[in-house]
Amino acid sequence: MKYALPFLSLAASSLGALSVLATDLQAEEAKGPKADDNLNAVLWDQTAVEAKATMAQAYVLARIRFDEALADKSRTADPSVQSGDFANKPPAVVLDVDDTVLNTSQYQAWNVKGGTSFSPKTWTAYVRAKIDTAIPGAVEFTQYAASKGAKVFYVSNRTKEEEPATAERLKELGFPMGGNVDTLLTAKEMEDWGSAKGTRRAFIARDYRLLLLVGDNLGDFTDAYKGSIEERQKVFDDNAAHWGKDWIALPNPTYGSWESAAYGHDFKTPPEEQRQKKIDALKTWSGPAQ
Ligand SMILES: [Mg+2]
Hints:
Layout: H1 15-30, H2 39-47, H3 49-71, E1 91-95, E2 102-103, H4 105-114, H5 120-129, E3 133-134, H6 138-147, E4 151-159, H7 163-173, E5 184-187, H8 198-205, E6 209-215, H9 229-238, E7 247-249, H10 257-260, H11 271-281
Parallel strand pairs: 1-4, 1-6, 4-5, 6-7
Antiparallel strand pairs: 2-3
Helix pairs in contact: 2-3, 2-4, 3-6
Magnesium ion binds next to loops.
């Protein structure tokens, strides 16, 4: 019972033990709100102007890179799914949705406050509330790309059931939608569209030239995102030429495959064990000389 709460280890069979338990609980309450590993990340994501500045900068860069890629027909942002004669295909940009164009921090904040974590049920209810805000710079960038004739695709792991509310919220916020083309490609919408997004990028690449990929997760750029921390580092290094050129990454310290990499992407790992594995993954200073 390495991770059991301290009071469970007390023999609660006597009144004495119960009074110790009561004292422990009172002491816990006196210390203030319960700790949550996501508090600082969500606070940063939701309130820090430093976060907003970083996101806005990413979209300023995206616009510069978009113009370059539009002018150079030899370019594709994803050679793994696009090769051959693509120079004269109409241009497209591909963006993730959650925490790339829509800020979902109110859901993370709800979990922090309630001591809960992600569940498909509460997530769907959140999506249907349609309260996401736009990531700084995202509406302006996507409108710009659309005004220059590019199709703006949103490749999201929201589900088909969550698609109508997502489309409505994107539209309300001013994001360009595809007209008669379905540009919001959700998970499982087609049989081979799993949570890895490569098959959806390949689907777009059949008819369009991919100018830019924009996302907050390694999986928004490559299907090789579920490895260990070391394997992900290698994927990052191997794709050095893409970053800041035709792959534009946004910061997300609140969740993502970077986080689950620390515990082998096994979401059944108990929270305390996840925390221990994250601590174990840190490289640390040896401390001051004695
Ligand atoms: Mg995302």
